[in-house]
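Before the break, one more example. Copy the sequence into your notebook; we will annotate it together after we see the structure.
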Amino acid sequence: MQLRIVTIEGQNPTLNSIRITNQSRGFPMRLLGFMLLFLGIVIGFSIINMFKIRYLGDQNMVQGVHTLMQSCFRDPNSLQDWIEPPSTYMHTLDDNELFWRASFHAQIKEYPFKRSPKIAFMFLTRGPLPFAPLWEKFFKGNEGFYTIYVHTMPSYRAKFSSSSVFYQKQIPSQVVEWGMMSMCDAERRLLANALLDISNEWFVLLSEACIPLQNFKIIYRYISRSRFSFMGAFDEPGPNGRGRYNHKMLPEVNIGQWRKGSQWFEANRRLAVDIIKDVTYYPKFEQFCRPACYVDEHYFPTMLTIQSPYSLANRSLTYVDWSKAGAHPATFGKDNITAEFFRKLQQDHTCVYNNQPTSVCFLFARKFAPDTLDLLLEKSTQFFGF
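Here is what the structure looks like once it is written out:
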């Protein structure tokens, strides 16, 4: 840098005049320094983001950008914040935090916005969904009237394409043991995640071995028009019913209130909230209903019979064949995939719907072997109407 000496007319150049001129040249240098510092911060932030995407996945990044956009472009206290469903199913809430958040329930029945009530289809599975292609066909054309939630073992990662209705529908999960309270925990976890979407009005629990017996429109109309939720809750006097009761459950549960029912249920929004907010009966069942007391057959039926006895249809919408002796129901194979078999499931039963007799009692069925998929897809229009 060249130093230029500026003289003041009539005076000799001095050190002070030299310093003043040098300071005037120093200002652009400070500006350049600030710019370099800002550039360094931007580069550092970019490197951190690249690290997060590479090692932590892009899920958190997308969510962070979404949150930033919300804070920038939307009033954080607007109604939209309450009614918009979560942008992603993945979160870091533990069960206590999740259940607390999901337990909020509107006390005014009339919604101050346009709402299309949906059915939440909740799949409780160890891993893969072998009948996903059949369910894809079932859901097609009914967008806006359903949501999907999948609870798997924590180590399992589904590989559905981005065009699939099951894409990114896994919720944060934990290990589930058959016959233990962790089974009910998983069901409550599914309900709580589904409750975060205020548009979900009905909640159906399904397994990886379940298939639909009717098309979507029939199922939606059947569930949405029912005045009751579909959960079996009956008093069985034998060893597999009352024989599983433990007197240590007193005083919260007496033997006259003890109920048994199918694990596979359908509940409306109010009952779903009752299930996930319970802290009264849960500790008793967790401690005193263990194999050979299978808690998933007793906890919800007993609790809801005590709390909401007139809200239950006392039957399940899922057909299961328990005619064979054993701890597990029959599995249906290729030999069962006939028009006559499904006609019997769909019509040869008698039950009560909205206090009126009907032959349409089951909307779903299990357990089907995975190798029946191709035949079910081929005959789905004939058998199920989709």
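Residues 98-105+115-316 form a domain with the Spore Coat Polysaccharide Biosynthesis Protein SpsA; Chain A fold (CATH 3.90.550). The longest helix spans residues 15-56. Try to locate both features in your own notes.
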